[in-house]
Write the structure tokens for this entry.
Amino acid sequence: MWLRARASLARQRVQFGNTFKHGASRRQLNHQRLHRWWAGISRTLARRAAWGCVALCAVALPALLILNFALAPRLDLSDRTDAEPESMVALLLAGEQLVPPPALPPDVFVLAEIAQDRPQLSTADRKWELLSPDFRQRLLLVFKIMREKHGYDMVLLEGYRSPQRQAMLQSLGPHVTNSGPFQSYHQFGRAADSAFLRDGRIVITEKDAWAMRGYELYGETAESVGLRWGGRWKMRDFGHVEFGSLNSTRPVLP
């Protein structure tokens, strides 16, 4: 009797243990299924969110580009003469490059009144392409402002100057120049002498009140775009402007 009771109790313990094990397995399985289900939903939502962002960008980007183009400021130098020098040059370089004016006939530069103020001017070089690009654009910008804002037509008298010509001009005396070869920005294509054109004739002398007022405006305009003006020197040279350092590379001759 006692043995049968012990055997029955043993069977009940085994059955209970199996039942407990099966129940734990089912709970673990359900937990794994729930985890996989939630992971699948998360991936689906992430994919839909990513595609939604792509679609939104595809729709919004063209509209933003059109709006930005419509609101972007147009390049207009005519009313920006009071801007900072570097910002004006930046505007200039961001837009279409200015081109030199047509060359004047050689006989315009050989008048007697011109020779008194500018000896040997007839043999001066007036090729714009021999000026360094950055200086050339600044000078052309000055010419543009002088014409459109102040009503003065400018003319280039001399740009690049060879060392031999510089030595010849120095030999004429200090009233012409004190600079010897490679002591002038002209030898580096970073200096120019300019004057005014009135009724088809070049006006150089500062004794002319109209020309003297033009030189004052010319100096102010040149300095506004980062050039140095010879009108502030001890030996004044009202038509001279220059730019850069004497360590600059010499212009490449054609």
Q: What stands out?
A: Residues 2-71 form the longest helix (70 residues).
